[in-house]
Amino acid sequence: MAHTVRLMPVLPGREQTARTFSNELLKERRAETDAFYARYGVRGETWSLQQTPMGLIGVVCTDIDDLADGLHKLAASTHPFDVWFRSRVQEITGLDLGQAMHEDPAAEQIFDWRPD
Q: What is the pTM of this model?
């Protein structure tokens, strides 16, 4: 299992859309969300919003069995929830998760400090 961190832009004016999407996933569509993450080997995921000089960024932290495999499967999926999820992500970020990723999009960790 891997812990991955990815940064995703939040398009101007889409912050509330991101918040609404998050609430939909955790409330109205919780059972579908649970099944969605289980299909892709996701053990947990957090989303945070970070304001930067370049604009609003979504910080996505995922515990997943295999990120690249999960993204390839998500890109090819025709499951109605998966199609809806991809369209919402594209609406918020401009990124098309329907395009198979050729490289692991996770951030490269270069520092990990912990007390002895």
A: 0.87
